Amino acid sequence: MFGKIPVLRVAAVLALVPSLAFSAAAAGKVRSALGSVDRMKAKQKDWTALRVGASIFQSDKVRTGTESEVIFGLPDGSTITIAENAEVEMANLLEPNGNGGFETRLDIKKGHINFAVHKLQDKNSKFLFKTGTATASIRGTEGYVGGEGVFFAGLKTGKLEITPEGKSEPVSIVAGETTFGSDSLVVVKLASSGNARFAKRLEKILAEKKPIQELVAEVQKADSAFQEVLKSEAEQAAAAVPMNNFSISTISPVEICDKGLMVEGFYRTNDETATLVLNIAGRYQSDNLIHMADGNVHSFAHKVVLNDENGLWTANNAKMVLTGKGINVSKSIDLHVNKACLEVNTRVPSVVIPSYDSLRCVANLSIGDMQGDAGILSIFSDGAQITEDAIVRNIQQRVKLKNGIHEYLFKMEDQAGNMAELEKTMGCFPAKRFNVDIVGPARESHAIPPGNPIQGGNSPLYKTLQFKIRTPENEPSHLYKVLVKQNGKIILQETLSQIQNMDYQVPLELGRGATYVIDIEVTHKSGYKVKAKKVYEVNE
Length: 540
Fold this sequence. Notes:
single chain, 6-stranded mixed beta sheet
């Protein structure tokens, strides 16, 4: 009836992608602390009270007492809730793992935790939750995990993979499923799977250590009872709404990702002129959500997509406002917008090289569409990476170019995985002195060869001009032009790609009884020019 999977002495693991290149000093921030919450810092032996606003660092231990809990957020926007009577060690917090990603590991020594891990993009990064009885891996999930002796986990969204210690094949559960067990695991579908309040009930049931089939029956019964409680609470909340007022069922703060913002609740009014609207950061306002003003309680629901395309992804709160004749009621909802979510962060960054200077060896780089975003800029030269920088806004910056001509690749990837690439061939040719060496003396005199017949006295004399261009790079690709003139007339001209070598042999045709001036001019791509000259005298 229920699939059993051996899961003996294993550890629980969850995977997370950080949105930025966080350092080893990355910290969580305490958002809420209820009851008795203590922290023991690394290399210390004393527990001290943990307050709202405090930072939690790597290797810190956190414990909670009865009817206590603490909620802290990570730099990527994910949240962790340590439930009552629990102890958790922050073994790693966004620590580079050597594979180009980052690792976060929380060791659950006692009790359980609730988590809301944002949708992951980078396969090289991990977020680890470790218990004494099972190992699990997730990528963008909301639920709970924990257990002492009896492992349990449940998902509200996403997918969870559980891998027994020493085994390679994982067991999967998806949204709406709960798994638990010690020597073996069972997977059951529960309407309350992933609910933080239900996790407390589940933990108490599993602590009784009954046979697995009895536990399954009790868990299913508890699930049905808990759903009735939720239904009753909703009905009571609706009945408690005063005239010309409203209540919000949506729990603040709201984590915004692929499902957007859904605001639900109840209102009661007998004012036909009343309006109930949702306002987000003054940039968005819904239509009137009141559909009946008969003095009875009615429900409302409104969904909004928050992304960078509609300009709402930087909002940190929303407000419901009820107005009418003598009515002015407003209530706020805190928003945690996950900018690592593709449905939120939809705009692809732009990468442009508007200009570059081959003499100063710099390129002007422009990164756009990154306002309110963050990501990694990687620059490659001829396939090899030369830099990697974190970008948190639109920027204009100069990039140092390598000497010579190279193929550059610019990659800008934001925290949601949107990527822009630009390939450009650019040269760096700083001005440097160089020489043109001509073979032979600067001036040569030639007589009529002996034995030449009288009738051939007007025939030309053929010579070869030899010269070598000596630049620091000794590369033809660094030259712009090679020009040779004979008595002011161009006899050789090569530019750019036509220049294939640094040694030249130029044939000359010289008439009798004349003087010939050979001018050589070589122009480097830096603009630096070198001139050389050779004179030939030919006698009758």
